[in-house]
Structures are given as structure tokens and as C-alpha cells.
Amino acid sequence: MTIPSKLRPQGATPRGKALIRIGAASKSFALPKGGRFDAVRNVTLEVNEGDIFGLMGKSGAGKSTLLRLFNLLERPDSGSITIDGQELTALGKKALRDARQNIGMIFQQFNLLQNASVFDNVAFPLRIHGSHDKAQIEERVRACLDLVELGDKADTYPAQLSGGQKQRVAIARALASKPAVLLCDEPTSALDAETTRSLLQTLKDVNQRLGVTIVIVSHELDVLGAICNRVAVIEDGAVAEEFALNDGDETPRKTALGRELLQYARAANASATSAAKEAAHV
Ligand SMILES: Nc1ncnc2c1ncn2[C@@H]1O[C@H](COP(=O)(O)OP(=O)(O)OP(=O)(O)O)[C@@H](O)[C@H]1O
Ligand SMILES: [Mg+2]
């Protein structure tokens, strides 16, 4: 399928190049009784253009904090964040606001504006940024809603939608500014199994059809195994190991989570292969 040019991310680098570089980033929080807690410790990571990159780890491991460093929702105490050639940590306020147009984000609880229609939710970031006229906003919002198959829901309100539909509105909103990167924090954790499958398909489409690079945090190994091509295991705020999925690499994994994830990924791969064979009547 050809991708309409209006939906393609701007300024994307060729597939395979490092699009995101996290350089020795650390983040600590002040503890109420004094002292500090190291939530992210000296993390260095690269995510390539076109990746669906998973961050996995136990609750409290620091996955969400690390993801929030990617777009500077949390500013690292030290280290650098570079996305699409721009070192975010070196930018002033206005330049950072512009650079963030290149990074969409979705959350477990959708974070939609309850008193705004679906259309206005998706239009919100474009209106806030202020560099689009009314006709451009209308065209862009309609294209994004069509992409997530909610073209007929523009005038409804979040309360009238299912969880899966709400998350698809959040995806449309995150894609409104044509970002090269989509950050997802537990995007399917509030959804049932069937809705999860269809949402993962939407994320895959966004990755494959639009070329958007995805970084996804999840504690659900079947989710990560089904869509990621690369993952990092986070333990105590640091990268315990990082590896590719389904590339035939048989190197034993260092962490129990890594070993478990490989089993999920192989199962997902095998079931996709047998479904394809069935469809082809082989
Ligand atoms: N704003 C904050 N102030 C103080 N401590 C924080 C703050 N945000 C996170 N933390 C602490 O940092 C650690 C990592 O939190 P984080 O939310 O990144 O974990 P997580 O891996 O996403 O966990 P979960 O799977 O439960 O979402 C936790 O111990 C948490 O209590
Ligand atoms: Mg979290």
C-alpha cells in the first residue's frame, strides 16, 4: 500500500540508522526523608529508524522514567538525549517545543480531554503549537482519524468510546504532528486480549506503513514478543541486556525475563507463520 505523503513523517533518516541516542543518561528523585533514589542509572541505548523497540522489566525497574527521558518529560540529571539528529538536552524552550513535534506519546490511561470531542482531542496539539491554519488542521485530523479507522467518530466524546477506541484516538492525536517517533507507555495494559491484538496491529501499521519508529514499555511479554524487533531488559534503572528478536540469534540470554521473552517471540512467530500458510492453503 502506498503511504499518502501527507501522512509520512517529516525529516526521517533512512531505515537502519540510529534515530534515537540515549547517552549515559541518569535520573534520580529526591526522597521525602532526604537522600535520593536513582531511577535511571547511566543508560546508553540506540534505537534505529524503523525499529519497534521494547523496554521490559519488573514494576519499579525504571521503564516509565526512562521513556519519559526520551522526550524530556523528565530531564536527565546527566547524559544526553538525541533524536533525529537533534540533541534535545542542548535545546532552549522554543526549539525543544518544535523538536517535540517529532515525538508522539501514548499512555496506559489514554489521557484524553474528556470535555472535548474526538476531533478536538486530535486537533489539540496542532492548535497549541500554533503553526497550522484551520484548513490544514481539518485535513490532518481527518487523515489521522481515518488511519486509526475512527473517521466516523470525529464528533463523539471520549466517554462514548470503548477502551480500544480511546487508545486509537490517542494514537491519532500522537501522530497529528507527523512525528518520526512514537513513545508508548503500557499502551495495551488497560485493554482486553482481543482489543490488545487489534491495537498492536494498528501500531504495526503505523510502523510499517508510515515508517514511524516506536519505543514501547510493557510488562506484557506476549505484547513485546508479538511486535518488537529489539528489546532492552531494565533492572534497577540500568540496561541488564539488549537483544534482537526473531533474527535467528541463539545466544543464551543473561536475564530470566530475556529468556522468557524469547519463548513468547518464537511462539508469536510460529503462529504468524502457520496463519500465513493457512491463508495461502499450503
Ligand atoms: N516523580 C517521582 N518521584 C519520586 N520517585 C519516583 C518518581 N517517579 C518514579 N519514581 C520512582 O522511580 C522508580 C521507577 O519508577 P518507574 O515508574 O519508572 O517504574 P516502572 O518500571 O515504569 O514501573 P511500573 O511497571 O510499575 O510502571 C520507582 O521506584 C518509583 O517509585
Ligand atoms: Mg511504568
UniProtKB/TrEMBL annotation:
GO BP terms? amino acid transport
Q: Where is the signal peptide?
A: none
| Boundaries of every Cyclic nucleotide-binding domain copy | 1-57
Family statement drawn from the similarity comment of this UniProt entry = Belongs to the ABC transporter superfamily.
Which source organism does the UniProt entry give?
Answer: Pseudoduganella violacea
What's a GO cellular component annotated to this UniProt protein?
A: plasma membrane
Keywords, ordered alphabetically:
Amino-acid transport, ATP-binding, Cell membrane, Membrane, Nucleotide-binding, Translocase, Transport
Protein purpose: Part of the ABC transporter FtsEX involved in cellular division. Important for assembly or stability of the septal ring.
Q: What is this protein called?
A: Cell division ATP-binding protein FtsE
- ABC transporter domain span: 20-261
Please name the GO terms that the record assigns under molecular function: ATP binding; ATP hydrolysis activity
> Has keyword Signal?
no
Q: Which Pfam families match?
A: ABC_tran (PF00005)
